[in-house]
Specification:
306 residues; alpha+beta; lpxc deacetylase, domain 1; seven-stranded mixed beta sheet; five-stranded mixed beta sheet; 7 helices; 20 strands; 21% helix
């Protein structure tokens, strides 16, 4: 069955890149509503922005969406990953500023809020997007790919010069609450050498050692170090789930990323939907629905490190 959150839940904090404080509230929504954002601080034009692949704006460091009236919401990938990872298909996300709060740099607080409120089943079956043909996009050495699969899988490979990260790879079947158990508390990360350049370009203005893992060569500058030895690649998988959730329905596919980021994953979705022969919409039978992300998750599945 399709789902929504049982009752509203709010979160407050600063945006990672803008540094602007905002409160975001996830509201229940009806069957076939999908996921929409509403800017509650906008009153002179359309304030509703669909959480959809075709309204994503160009950018590498976060995912930003914009409606036809020029209303934007940025850094949506973590809250979108939380919704997808908890199996929420319909929600209205109200926000009183331009950027979703970064909180601790992961999706764990969003997941805890959702699971504390509970997931409400709705009286309609889930539709999924079944990938029928392999789709691949590239940007230099970076590659993102969707391949046919009966279950939703994510695999990722990253490679950084900093020894604190180095080369990492991981693959997960996203069924059975894998996102909540394995990925939701992995935090965004950056290199110390990149911070000054980002701030000179008006980015990372709200970034601190409390909401990002900062590395410098072999050293981890963030107090407490990494939550996992491979926290960086886990976070890239978290981001990928959030960006793929903009497809508008659960995917039956295997996603693989090699040095991929937000822009390349969105380019992959655009390529998929430009190829009508490469996918089909299907009504999920009971067995298929049970293998979708989020089915059966509980608050106790959230890692203690969150």
């Amino acid at each position: 069955m399709q789902t929504t959150i049982r009752s509203s839940v709010s979160f407050a904090g600063k945006g990672l890149h803008s540094g602007v404080p905002a409160t975001v509230t996830i509201q229940p929504a009806s069957v076939e509503y999908g996921v929409w954002f509403r800017r509650t601080d906008i009153h002179d034009r359309d304030a509703l922005v669909p959480a959809r692949w075709d309204v994503v704006q160009k950018g590498r460091l976060c995912t930003k969406i914009e409606n036809s009236s020029g209303v934007q919401v940025s850094t949506i990938e973590h809250i979108m990953a939380a919704l997808a990872g908890c199996g929420i298909h319909n929600a209205l996300i109200e926000i009183d500023g331009p950027e979703v709060p970064i909180l601790d740099g992961s999706a764990a607080e969003f997941v805890m809020g959702i699971l504390n409120r509970g997931v409400q089943e709705l009286s309609a079956p889930v539709r999924a997007i079944r990938v029928l043909k392999e789709i691949e996009v590239r940007d230099g050495e970076a590659v993102a790919r969707l391949s046919p699969s009966d279950v939703f899988e994510i695999s990722f490979h990253i490679q950084f010069e900093d020894a604190a990260i180095g080369q990492q790879e991981k693959c997960l079947n996203m069924a059975n609450g894998a996102f909540v158990k394995e990925l939701c508390n992995s935090r965004t990360f950056c290199r110390q050498s990149d911070i000054e350049a980002m701030r000179e370009n008006g980015l990372a203005l709200g970034g601190t050692l409390a909401n990002a893992v900062v590395v410098d060569g072999a050293s981890v500058m963030t107090p407490g170090g990494m939550r996992y030895q491979d926290e960086a690649v886990r976070h890239k998988m978290l981001d990928a789930l959030g960006d793929l959730a903009l497809s508008g329905a659960p995917l039956l596919a295997s996603y693989s990323g090699y040095r991929a980021g937000h822009a390349l994953t969105n380019k992959l979705l655009r390529e998929l939907f430009a190829r009508p022969d490469a996918f089909e919409m299907v009504l999920c039978d009971e067995d298929t629905a049970l293998r979708l992300p989020g089915v059966g998750v509980r608050r106790s599945d959230i890692p203690a490190a969150a």
